[in-house]
Amino acid sequence: MPWFVKIETGIVPKERFDRSVPAHLAYVRSLPKRAISGYWAELGGGMLLFEAADRAEAERVVREDPLIRDGCVSYELHEWRIVAGTLERGGGTA
């Protein structure tokens, strides 16, 4: 199954952004396929790495993300192809 990455840049004040984070985290946890969400420690913005059947499904996943729905971030969506290593689903801290 293809992996996709949504690279995010925050576009609203932090207070507004923070109000959408709990819904975003719940959304990521509810996705039926593997997904990992995080933010850049030294920069504003973050990334959502997730599996989707195809580009159309990936675009739907992004459109339904509360951070997008609430107008908190701009983003780029890319298909990501693994060439070395593996990704294991682990328990996150969020």
Q: Keyphrases for this structure?
A:
3 helices; globular; 94 residues; 33% helix; 4-stranded antiparallel β-sheet; alpha+beta
H-E string: EHEEHHE
Beta-strand segment tally? 4
Q: Identify the CATH architecture.
A: 2-Layer Sandwich
Average pLDDT value?
Answer: 90
State the shape: globular
Strand content: 25-35%
Name the CATH homologous superfamily.
Answer: Dimeric alpha+beta barrel
- The level 1 CATH classification is Alpha Beta
Tell me about the largest β-sheet.
Answer: 4 strands, antiparallel
- The span between the termini is 25 Å
Q: Spans of 5+ residues with little confidence (pLDDT < 50)?
A: none
The CATH topology, please?
Alpha-Beta Plaits
Helix content: 25-40%
* Strand line-up of the largest beta sheet: 2-3-1-4
- Structural category: alpha+beta
Gyration radius, to the nearest Å? 13 Å
Tally the helices.
3
Count of spatially separate domains? 1
Structure description:
It is a single chain. The protein has 94 residues and is α+β, with helices and mostly antiparallel strands. It has one domain: Alpha-Beta Plaits. It is 33% helix and 29% strand. Strands 2-3-1-4 form a 4-stranded antiparallel β-sheet, covered by helices on one side. The longest helix is centred in the N-terminal third of the chain and has 17 residues, at 14-30. The mean pLDDT is 90.
